[in-house]
Amino acid sequence: MINRRKFIKAGAMGASMVSTGGFLTAYAGSNHSGQVAAGRPVVISTWDFGVAANRAAWTILEAGGRALDAVEAGVRVPEADLANVTVGKGGYPDRDGHVTLDACIMDEHGNCGSVAALEHVTHPISVARLVMEKTPHVMLVGAGALQFALENGFERENLLTPEGEAAWKTWLKERKYEPVINIENRSFNVEKIPGNRYNHDTIGMLALGRNGDLSGACTTSGMAFKMHGRVGDSPIIGAGLYVDNEVGGATATGVGEEVIRTVGSFLVVELMRQGLSPRNACREAVKRIIKKKPEAAKKIQVGFLALNKNGEYGAFSLQKGFSFAVCDRYQQDLLLDGESMY
Ligand code: SD4
């Protein structure tokens, strides 16, 4: 259960303290960094459903487990949740009625694995991990990814739920190809676009283990009612996710095309390498998107989430409403609202 939401505001933070469930957590830095130093271990992830996902990851981190195991276990929670229509089983299908999933994972050694446009498997993140661990490759797509999964013991399943099918059929009535993603700002009237009510939310998760190693995972069903074969940023290393164990990790959510164009997560990590705080690095990446497409950027959502080697984290998005969840030894179900440009 989500029982509280804290708001992070730029500049106002200073050295303020916020009470979280009886514990005090200091917001680090007075230089407008606007972020929390959680120390380690810590796990953070995108959107409200990150709270439940973090809990699963935390069980592993708390016991001294590997960050890689934690992020895989964490994102498997929304992947298996049928009520979640944007990740894993139950995800909304593409415009031809196929549920196609994208996911990637990256460990502390720079190893990574990815699957794109994978059908019939509830846990693409675990297939991505196997690609990383059992093949000399980074990415498998479509039929090849499914073949690999089935050969490795994954069960073939039907991922289209009755709700997903009903939403698709509603969308088919108008067949309007107008993918809108992650706009929580109600002024956009997203709910008036058939089927677009839940057309957002990828889980990107970053964890720092007790031993100081970082890993990340990202998984999604992508844009609802997308063209068959469309792949977003989420399975693309450097775009939807990037981890460098010397520096930190970053993950993205929102309109994947814009994240790919800016190689967003890699950019955030490189900015942190240059000394920016996680929050400021995310902000710079958001600014890069605006610079490339100033008008388009006003109407879409992209959010970045980052964690550095010290356990400091931050987020920034184009539009309001980008929530992220944090779990560390003081707070297991913290939900925060990142700052936004608009
Ligand atoms: C995509 N980035 O497929 C994903 C969708 C997403 O929050 O993140 N939604 O473009």
General description of the model:
There is one protein chain. Residues 6-34 and 185-199 have low confidence and may be disordered. The protein has a 9-stranded mixed β-sheet with strand order 1-16-15-5-9-10-6-7-8. It has one domain: (Glycosyl)asparaginase (Glutamine Phosphoribosylpyrophosphate, subunit 1, domain 1). Helix content is 28%, strand content 25%. It is of the alpha+beta class and 342 residues long. Helix 1 (50-62) runs antiparallel to helix 2 (67-80) and helix 7 crosses helix 8 (278-292). The chain is built from 9 helices and 17 strands. Bound molecules: N-hydroxy-L-asparagine. N-hydroxy-L-asparagine binds at residues 181-182, 200-202, 220, 222-223, 232-234, 253-256.
Q: Indicate the radius of gyration in whole angstroms.
A: 18 Å
Net shape: globular
Number of strands: 17
Q: What ions, cofactors and ligands are bound?
A: N-hydroxy-L-asparagine
Gross CATH architecture: 4-Layer Sandwich
The strand line-up of the biggest sheet is: 1-16-15-5-9-10-6-7-8
Q: Give, in order, the helices and strands.
A: EEEEEHHEEHEHHEEEEHHHHEEEEE
**Number of helices, counting only DSSP H or I runs of 4 residues or more:** 9
Poorly predicted ranges: 6-34, 185-199
CATH homologous superfamily label: (Glycosyl)asparaginase
Strand content: 25-35%
CATH topology annotation: Glutamine Phosphoribosylpyrophosphate, subunit 1, domain 1
Which class best fits the helix and strand makeup?
alpha+beta
Mean pLDDT, as a whole number? Answer: 86
Sheet with the most strands?
9 strands, mixed
Distance from first to last alpha carbon: 29 Å
Helix content: 25-40%
Text of the CATH class: Alpha Beta
Protein name: Asparaginase
Active site: 202 (nucleophile)
Binding site for substrate: 230-233, 253-256
Site (Cleavage): 201-202
